[in-house]
């Protein structure tokens, strides 16, 4: 037996702040159509896929709110949903969510091939700051523009069209936090989707890591966490030079051994595809990473009892 | 400023069950002397370094207990301690511990260059089984021969001879469990030592992963956890064909970017060395992985509240 899903990572090239919404949506539909043509039934788009990565700008009022979605889908995004359902393809997509109560979240959803929302996730590990950095050309204001996710790390069991996969979502920086992966794996997660916008360099010209090192980091955490949680992972970038600020690519599909089975070669719109056999998770989940047999939570107390580090005293104990 | 420690990974080739204890100790002292000659002040030996990996055999009574140390050091192991102190070199070493009360642990210690025991750790993530596998030539009986570690994951602050490094220890399989690394990093850990004996193939000839894949896994988890916890890591194998069962090598020293800066080239006794600047941890600890700023423990509850996975219900939520 095998439980196969053909998955496409739909990497997106840059979206400039002056790009028209309809043009960006047309690019997404083109990626969806290419993925469907290749036989994929799940397409994974990036974080904040419908716009530029706007937390790099200090914005206010309607200029800020224009980046948010008040309903998903609404009239602006419905063509993507309609085309996906017509093609029998589901998708993960990240977007800026504005609730009826006025709350704002960095959110993702998984939509089934039948067009139903299987589940929603709101980003918990928000990087950046609340206050803008004085004098800096580029900001990272996610902590200003979004509330911390309030849905926890829910896993969702798909229907037969996706082989009853147990699916999880993360968003960008979340993937660097092993607690996030583990919280999903403790629900049996077999397939993780994560979209990202990750800087390729410091756009303000400060001390910086190379784009190659940042891409290595991005893939390393996905590979190791996929292995340690015995799941497939699909990590998808918005990439390239966006509004004068660089984003890494490196979109990839990783198997439960932590091996990259497919990866993007460009910093542009690009579909990367793999056949993911969910039954390959069973080896890890039943042996090396049989949580019930081997975890020792009575010794993990610091992970939930404290937020920051508490240093030991000096000297021989 | 930099806070430098020159560290040596002292990989050991195989130790057969009929090898004399004194001969194995002489190999360890030779590795220690080579590391000291190269200027190292910290030498990391493997797990269960003084003997063959005896949990592969079903043993009883004195035949089993002969593999354990009743005191560290005792007359058998004291020559290593004496030579280290004379050379001004400290070390991490793994051994089988038998307490006065008759408890048995898979244990490691860090000994300072002055010959004092800085700290002790007892392996928490014991793989294998309590009951032997009927008919199998080779066993994995760690759960039979050792009690689960009862010291938690303590970090220790070294003295000025090691630049006041905050040090942690893990043993073998522990390194695949991100909870273990995080528990240490939540104490500010800057340098992690881990020794291992990891199978290169299934010695009973069952379905198996290649030695290359197993070595990849072993390095992947060390690289990613070093990066996600912004620490140095020194991972040291007992390697090669031991008692007709194969052990991977791949000993390595990894920087806080998750980059391997030095690694073993053989499956034999081999010293690998690197200069580890503890101040390189500060970048990660103060920015990307500033735990106090970015962790959200209120959402990590499953990690401590449950041991095994609890699967979600089917259907649209």
From TrEMBL, chains A, B:
Name this polypeptide is given: N-carbamoyl-D-amino-acid hydrolase
Molecular functions per Gene Ontology: hydrolase activity, acting on carbon-nitrogen (but not peptide) bonds, in linear amides
Pfam families attached to this UniProt entry: CN_hydrolase
SUPFAM superfamilies, A to Z: Carbon-nitrogen hydrolase
Alphabetical keyword list: Hydrolase
Residue ranges constituting the CN hydrolase domain according to the UniProt record: 5-278
InterPro entries reported for this sequence: Aliph_Amidase/BUP, C-N_Hydrolase, C-N_Hydrolase_sf
Keyword Hydrolase: yes
């Amino acid at each position: 037996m095998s439980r196969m899903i053909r998955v496409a990572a739909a990497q997106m090239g840059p979206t400039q702040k002056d790009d028209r919404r309809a043009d960006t949506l047309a690019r997404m539909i083109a990626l969806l159509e290419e993925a469907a043509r290749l036989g994929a039934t799940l397409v994974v788009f990036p974080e904040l896929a419908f716009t530029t990565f706007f937390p790099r700008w200090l914005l206010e009022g309607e200029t800020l709110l224009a980046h948010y979605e008040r309903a998903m889908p609404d009239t602006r995004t419905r063509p993507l949903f309609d085309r996906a359902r017509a093609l029998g393809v589901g998708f993960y997509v990240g977007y800026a969510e504005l609730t009826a109560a006025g709350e704002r979240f960095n959110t993702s959803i998984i939509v089934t091939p039948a067009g139903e929302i299987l589940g929603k996730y709101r980003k918990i590990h928000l990087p950046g700051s609340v206050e803008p950095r004085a004098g800096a050309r580029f900001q990272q204001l996610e902590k200003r523009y979004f509330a911390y996710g309030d849905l926890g790390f829910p896993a969702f069991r798909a229907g037969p069209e996706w082989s009853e996969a147990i699916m999880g979502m993360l968003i960008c920086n979340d993937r660097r936090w092993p607690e996030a992966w583990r919280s999903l794996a403790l629900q049996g997660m077999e397939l993780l989707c994560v979209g990202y916008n990750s800087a390729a360099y410091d756009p303000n010209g400060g001390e910086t890591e190379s784009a190659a090192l940042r891409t290595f980091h991005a893939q390393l955490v996905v590979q190791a966490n996929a292995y340690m949680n015995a799941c497939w992972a699909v990590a998808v970038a918005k990439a390239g030079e966006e509004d004068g600020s660089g984003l890494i690519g490196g979109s990839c599909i990783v198997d439960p051994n932590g091996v990259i089975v497919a990866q993007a070669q460009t910093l542009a719109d690009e579909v990367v595809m793999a056949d993911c056999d969910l039954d390959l998770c069973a080896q890890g989940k039943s042996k090396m990473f049989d949580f019930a047999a081997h975890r020792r939570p009575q010794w993990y107390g610091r992970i939930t009892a404290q937020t920051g580090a508490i240093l030991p005293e000096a000297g021989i104990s």
